[in-house]
Design brief:
Blueprint (H helix, E strand, L loop, with lengths): L2 H23 L11 H8 L3 H9 L2 H11 L4 E6 L1 H5 L11 H10 L1 E2 L5 H4 L6 E2 L11 E7 L2 E5 L4 E9 L4 E6 L28 H4 L12 H21 L1
Length: 240
């Protein structure tokens, strides 16, 4: 065998081994860090109001804890900054602290759902706010083709861009704030306390002036009769 053939054979062998050597020496990708809902939203840059509410209500920490430590996953509907700007003036400021927490939790489902899952769910779907103050706080989903709408009874809006769609966390953009119908339902008035010791609760009865007591046993008539007899006896004595 000539020297040129030997050299060609060695070159061929080395060329075949080179990709294998490179593959073995390439560092393995490091494990991905824990999921952070606010970090996901910050990358897009149009969810500053929702991020602020997530931080103020500590709902963001609750989401991160659940998706990183449970098998159920979660689904978040993230309203854009424009969605909050389109609310009637003062809407957020009029909410109590508890209602702000409920509003944020109303945008979170305690389970992971794909768009396809949302088309076939049984309505209403429970949210993180479900059961608070005895309210349903559920969301209703309808879909056709690739389009899915979410309705609160007050707001109806399509689900748009998926900011994240891999288990255990799905994050979908919505262009309206999901306002729960429970915020607009009048609560039943509290029952009036029962009257104590059989007293009447009617204020008109309580304000009445007591009647003067009537004379007892006809003593008034006896006094008048005795006065007439005394007067007649005095006149008779004077004439005599």
């Amino acid at each position: 065998m000539s020297f040129s053939l030997i050299l060609l054979s060695l070159t061929t062998v080395l060329s075949l081994l080179t990709p294998t050597l490179h593959a073995q020496s390439a560092p393995a990708p490091g494990p991905s860090g824990p999921i952070n809902i606010t970090g996901i939203l910050e990358k897009d840059g149009q969810y500053t109001t929702f991020i602020r509410l997530l931080n103020q209500t500590q709902a963001g920490d609750q989401i991160n804890n659940q998706v990183n430590n449970s098998n159920e996953g979660m689904t978040v509907f993230a309203p854009t900054d424009n969605a909050f700007l389109n609310l009637p003036a003062g809407t957020l400021n009029k909410l109590s602290t508890q209602q702000q927490v409920q509003l944020v939790q109303y945008h979170v489902l305690p389970k992971y759902y794909t768009v396809e899952n949302l088309q076939t769910v049984s309505n209403p779907v429970r949210t993180q706010a479900t059961g608070q103050d005895g309210g349903v706080f559920g969301l209703n989903f309808t879909g056709q083709g690739n389009q899915v709408n979410v309705s609160t009874g007050i707001v109806d809006v399509p689900i748009y861009n998926a900011l994240r769609k891999d288990f255990p966390l799905a994050v979908y953009q919505v262009d309206k704030v999901l306002l729960p119908v429970e915020f607009y339902q009048a609560k039943a008035p509290a029952a009036s306390p029962p009257a104590l010791n059989g007293t009447k609760s009617d204020s008109s009865d309580n304000n009445k002036t007591p009647d003067a007591p009537a004379p007892a046993n006809g003593s008034g008539k006896m006094s008048v009769g005795f006065g007439l007899v005394s007067c007649f006896w005095f006149m008779l004595c004077y004439l005599v």
